[in-house]
Amino acid sequence: MSLIFTTYAADFQWSSLPALPDARGFAGSFAGVVEGTLMVAGGTHFIDKMPWEGGTKLWYDTLFALEKPDGAWRVAGKLPKPNGYGVSITTPDGWIILGGGNATEHFREVFWVQKDAQLPPLPKPCAFMCGCESDGVIYISGGIETPAATTALSTFWSLDLKQPGAAWQELPPCPGKPRMLACMAAVNGVVHVFGGAALHAGKDGKAEREWLNDAWAYAPATGWQKLPDMPRVAVAAPNPPPVIDGKMYILGGDDGANVNFEPKEKHPGFPRSILVFDAKTQAWSQAGEVPFSLVTTNAVRWQGQIVIPGGEARPGVRSPQVWRGKMK
Asked: Name one Pfam family in it (predicted).
């Protein structure tokens, strides 16, 4: 029987689902629902040492499936190739995986999972972007074009799934700084982008992050609008953030406060507070906390609840835990 943590959240009741069948867990996986079955695919973990010790990061292509909450995960197939850190979106017509990448390249491919239908590739290779679906249209924003990129993309693309043979459209970019690992959600046809990180080249030539807490909204008829800033930075929070009754829930996310924490193996994890943006009042609030510290993962609606399947629990450390949240 699952344990219920009623004291952690003001708006949610959280319980555990069967853990993913790999004790190391995964970060950057894709998750979605196909014909009522919860699925998790791809992602990465370190197999020998932690990243600061020179550990080896591996990318995976395994597709796991869970048919019912009290069932067991099974291997249901493979992705076309090892992949992680792209966008995955469950639509009324099925589950779509967009972009992503591996250690040496990022991908343009866009495809339905377990469905024979073609979708056009992204205009550019892209990973670490954010995306959502609104009224049958997919929106994708930001990310980085290559694994070694020192600047994020300012791109904002849309694909109308209702139009057979439709191509990606390039839309006006978000007026804020180009970013990666932001959150995106839509309410009443308006697309919202929250937080994330901008990039610049450091003294060693490698990418350094600038932590962002700004928020923006895009309406197809009127364009972009600046929203009130987030109460704190949120990078790589579970995506797309759940939308319930016109409110968007940012479940944790890295605030950058412990980016230089030492010793690294004692890192305390990421913030657990739930930030809520109300599209009607245009105001932020907090809805308690989640009982987990997980980033670079998905938030998937399954059987009327929000599922968070694994992710990065602290730098370099993945988790096989799978959580589900139910509104009180």
From this structure: NANM
Residue 60: closest CA among 31, 32, 83: 83
Contact of 129 with 30, CB cutoff 8 Å: no
Q: How confident is the model at residue 10 (pLDDT cuts 50, 70, 90)?
A: low
Name beta bridge partners: 276.
Answer: 249, 285
Examine the pLDDT at 179 and tell me if it is beyond 60: yes
pTM: 0.95
What is the distance between the alpha carbons of residues 230 and 106, in angstroms, rounded to a whole number? 30
Enter the CATH code of domain 4-327. 2.120.10.80
**Tokens representing residue 189 in the block:** 């046809």
Q: How many CA atoms lie within 13 A of 273 on its CB side?
A: 11
Q: Is 207 helix (H, G, I), strand (E, B) or coil?
A: strand
**What is the strand order of the sheet 156-160 is part of?**
130-134, 137-141, 156-160, 169-170
DSSP string, 259-308: TT-SSGGG------EEEEEETTTTEEEEEEE-S---BS-B-EEETTEEEE
List Cβ neighbours of 316 (8 Å cut-off, separation of 6 or more).
46, 50, 51, 52, 55, 264
Q: Give the span between the Cα atoms of 225 and 243, in whole angstroms.
A: 19
Can you list the positions of beta strands (E) in 12-128?
A: 12-17, 30-34, 37-46, 57-66, 74-78, 87-91, 94-98, 110-112
Residues across the chain: 328
Which residues have C-beta within 8 Å of that of residue 280, sequence separation ≥ 6?
246
